């Protein structure tokens, strides 16, 4: 390699690395979490710290391995539940992740794209806030039905990086944005 090729190669590889690290991510504008109603129904919660989002997605993941099953045999479901808001969302919001009996989705601020699937025992779910133009998103939060059963209606579970935190809804609303 000649002396002029080395700087060109270094510059090209540095630009590729920079693009690979920054070109495919959506900036985080807040936090996503879960809570439950007094009846135990699961709710998604989002706290937008700056800017806006206008959608949310719930990705089912492979089932948690049972004693009799090998984790390698598990398959991820082929659906994603999603919700949209007619207006941009800032601040705190919550909505049902399932359709409880008697719930009118037409009067909810969040409109599901299709009726949400029932949450299954033993399956992990990842929830995240989105924007239709990919300008902003909220952090993702992964949970199971067992995680939801540990919550009371005044608690929210959310993720900061790889750390799962459980706090009161009031504390989440008042202090979570400090971690952004």
Describe the structure.
Helices cover 17% and strands 42% of the residues. It has 180 residues and is an alpha+beta fold. Strands 1, 2, 3, 4, 5, 6, 7, 8 and 9 form a nine-stranded mixed β-sheet that branches. β1 (28-36) and β2 (42-63) form a beta hairpin. It is globular.
Give a short account of the largest sheet.
9 strands, mixed
Query: How many beta-strand segments?
Result: 9
Gross morphology is globular
- Beta-strand level of the residues, as a percent range? 35-45%
Number of discrete helical segments: 3
Oligomer: single chain
Radius of gyration: 20 Å
Please report the distance between the alpha carbons of the first and last residues.
Answer: 45 Å
* Mean pLDDT over the residues: 82
The percent range for helix content is 10-25%
Residue stretches low in confidence (pLDDT < 50, at least 5 long) are 1-23
The secondary structure category is alpha+beta
């Amino acid at each position: 390699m000649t002396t002029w090729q080395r700087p060109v190669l270094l510059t090209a590889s540095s630009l590729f690395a920079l693009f690979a690290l920054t070109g495919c991510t959506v900036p985080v504008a807040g936090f996503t979490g879960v809570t439950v109603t007094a009846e135990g129904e699961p709710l998604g919660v989002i706290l937008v710290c700056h800017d806006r989002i206008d959608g949310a997605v719930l990705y089912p993941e492979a089932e948690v391995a049972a004693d009799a099953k090998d984790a390698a045999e598990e398959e991820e479901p082929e659906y994603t539940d999603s919700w949209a808001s007619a207006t941009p969302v800032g601040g705190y919001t919550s909505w049902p992740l399932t359709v409880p009996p008697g719930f009118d989705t037409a009067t909810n601020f969040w409109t599901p794209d299709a009726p949400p699937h029932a949450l299954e025992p033993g399956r992990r779910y990842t929830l995240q806030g989105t924007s239709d133009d990919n300008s902003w998103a909220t952090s993702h939060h992964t949970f199971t039905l067992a995680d939801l059963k540990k919550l009371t209606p005044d608690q929210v579970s959310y993720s900061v990086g790889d750390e799962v935190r459980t706090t009161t809804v009031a504390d989440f609303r008042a202090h979570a944005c400090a971690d952004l």
